[in-house]
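Exercise 3.2. Students should predict the tertiary structure of the chain below and write it as structure tokens, then compare their answer with the key that follows.

Predict this chain's 3D structure.
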Amino acid sequence: MTDETPSTYGTQRKAAARNRVAIIEAAHELFAENPLATLSEVAKRAGVGAGTLYRHFPTREDLVLGAYQHDIDRLVTTADEVLARHSSARAAFVEWFETLSAYIRLKHGLGDALHSEAAQKMVRESWGPAGEAVGRLVDACVAEGTIAAGHDPADVIMLMSFLWRVPNNEEGVTQGRRLIDTVFSGLKESPVS
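Answer key:
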């Protein structure tokens, strides 16, 4: 029997949840700055001890995957917010995909951690929610008249994947915007069956 009361347990769980979020956010920031950032740097930025970090993320791969899942979850939930913020569905579509491409470019810099079986499973599991978010963006563009009806969100994701292949600099942004215009020209046509 322990002398912990239910309220003590609840307080500890809330603190653990806050620590987990702080670690993930610190990892996101540090990995964006330097994909080779150490776990001790992450712990320091998060304001937690190494033991706390390792309780939540026993390996670097676990932390990379946790940060990836957090980013994808956050992005998927922002589709409606991005649509609400823009007067143009097309502008919301472009912003959402540019944000996605920034996440993916960051993750490409993290090496082998995203090539493990656990990572591939996570990517497969995130495909459904990402497809639903893209579906909402596509539907808004169809309603606006900037995209023809009938385009499959999975096809649109594959089509837009060029964004995470352009250089991560001013020239890449310019090239990406040119290619987005080309994509929208093609999406104005009904899909070929």
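Discussion points: The chain has two domains: 1-58, 59-193. The domain at 59-193 is CATH 1.10.357.10 (Tetracycline Repressor; domain 2).
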